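Check the record.
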Amino acid sequence: MVSQPITKTFGEMSFSLYPNPTKGQLNIQVTNMPSDAHGEITLYDLNGRLLIKQNSLRENYLLDISTQPIGVYVLRIEACDMVKEWKVIKEK
């Protein structure tokens, strides 16, 4: 299991995601988020099927994937006209 958050930056903003692999609860933390930041968080399966869509950004977000089967997913965050993706592993 990865014990340290996985972090990616969007200009001045940083997004951290943990734990990955996860048993169902995935924490997303945003630092240095401008007050006018806009974007969305989406989760896809490996076939490209949209499973979860959140149309707003917050400094702390808990993504519940506990109802999804064990496997690999793609978490996509669009913020301030930039896109970052992570592979997320859901385990037993």
Q: What stands out?
A: The longest strand covers residues 71-79. Residues 6-90 form a domain with the Immunoglobulin-like fold (CATH 2.60.40.1930). The chain has a mean pLDDT of 88. The chain is about 0% helix and 60% strand.
